[in-house]
User: What shape does this take?
Amino acid sequence: MESDQQSSEGSDRSELVSEDGKNIKSVICQCCESKVLCPGSAVLAEKELFLPLMKKKSGLNNTDGSVDGDTLTAHWFVDDMFTFENVGFTNNVGRIKYLICADCEIGPIGWHCLDDKKSFYIALERVKHV
Assistant: This one.
């Protein structure tokens, strides 16, 4: 059986989200554990977004038309890019910039549309919470 901490991230979000909808724990990179968001700095948002499979930054800019990935719905939302502790951005992919870990350049962990300068999303499934 999985430990309580591991199973709670996938199904029970009560340990991750405060009563006012903000992140209770720090949000960190799954690969290098670099801090992405401090506790209380993001709001849980339900929005269906497509993110390519996780890889190094250089592999995210492929334009061959076929991209493997996941449609994810649970995200941490912030409205100011300076809220992040440590995040990088890919080159434009259409009207989208994908968010990656600035230290190890693995991603995408999130999504930003260039049409909306105040919307940045980090997928809960692409990060760890400590």
In short: The chain has one helix and eleven strands. The CA atoms of residues 28 and 34 lie 5 Å apart. Residues 4-10 form the longest helix (7 residues). The helical segments are 4-10.
